[in-house]
Amino acid sequence: KKHTLTGTVLSTSGTQLKLLDRGSVRIVEITAATTIHDNGVIVLISALKTGERVRVTATETQSLIVASRIDVLALVKTKAGNLPSAFKSAVSQVGRTSVVLIVTSGQRVTIGLSASTKVMVRKHSVPVAWLFAGPTADVSVQASASPSALQIDFHPASKTFTGDIASIAGQQMVLDIGSAGKRTVDLPVATVTDEGNASDVQALQAGLHVKVDGFVLPNGTEAALSAAITHPSVRISGTVTSAGGSGVSILRTTGQ
Asked: In whole angstroms, what separates CA 15 from the centre of its chain?
């Protein structure tokens, strides 16, 4: 039975290729008759790199998948200009220089982190330090025997807090959210608006009411992606006693 498999190289060992194909791991046997093509050049199995996309033409005999031809596929950027994800996975561990991904049940891949690794959360570029174990991620890599991450689209659970700013210093503020207490909020990447108008972190001042959208870091800090300032409306009924310049004086009879 003939097969055509398209997937991501997980590893090679001797005469076997381990391939991630639509969430399943396939073991492909390489024989002396197998040809491996990379950009028009025939290469050895040892030239295949973790993270590369390949198309395998193979024959299934009993429980074995035997490759007759393997083609290394060129990476085609997405409409947004990004490289396609090599791994859609859950983040298992995060270290200073690498991240371990669970790409399918029982199969883990270690991906290097570098100064050029870009981490995105809902179209916001965030610090690599905001990665943590648990959420899922789509990872594009520089394929090699020890692949490194080019971009990680990280998907932590969203969290929204609304309250009054108790204090702010630099890129961090403390938000008073009433009976739920106070929360520390990190602001280095937050998009700030003031009554719907574009603003910046300098507009955040103690006493203002804000709605913060983001996610919670393992230490309990809220990583803010946006902070929206709202000003409570005031209604006053009464008699105008004077008017001038930019204000009026009202003898209030009722109001809130």
From this structure: 35
